[in-house]
Specification:
110 residues; mainly beta; seven-stranded mixed beta sheet; four-stranded antiparallel beta sheet; 11 strands
């Protein structure tokens, strides 16, 4: 199994980023896929999930974050808008059974 994230970077408050996750080595279409972040000095925080045509969001991300997946390409993306400094973290793509990618850093700062 492999999950490879990309798309992180430095963005100013109020800006947008789109994170990408490419998956391989398992049956993607039926997999629960999540985005989880970990800020410095804090524990992991679930952000959003996608499974069987349904999407789920943490309250802090509702209206700002949108998860989308393409089962034909085995990818799951996270569009993040109106970013805040408190969104700064390493963002991980996580397969439902607990397999994590290597993460991509998102820094929101002026």
């Amino acid at each position: 199994m492999q999950l490879v994230e990309s798309g992180g970077g430095l963005v100013q408050p109020g800006g947008s980023l789109r994170l990408f996750c490419a998956a391989s080595g398992f049956i993607f279409e039926t997999a629960v896929m999540n985005w989880v972040r970990q800020a410095p000095g804090k524990g992991p925080e679930w952000i959003s999930g996608s499974a069987l045509g349904r999407t789920f969001y943490r309250d802090s991300g509702k209206g700002r974050f949108t998860i989308s997946r393409d089962n034909s390409k085995n990818t799951v993306d996270l569009q993040m808008n109106s970013l805040k400094p408190e969104d700064t973290a390493v963002y991980y793509c996580v397969q439902g059974a607990g397999f994590w990618g290597q993460g991509t850093q998102v820094t929101v700062s002026s």
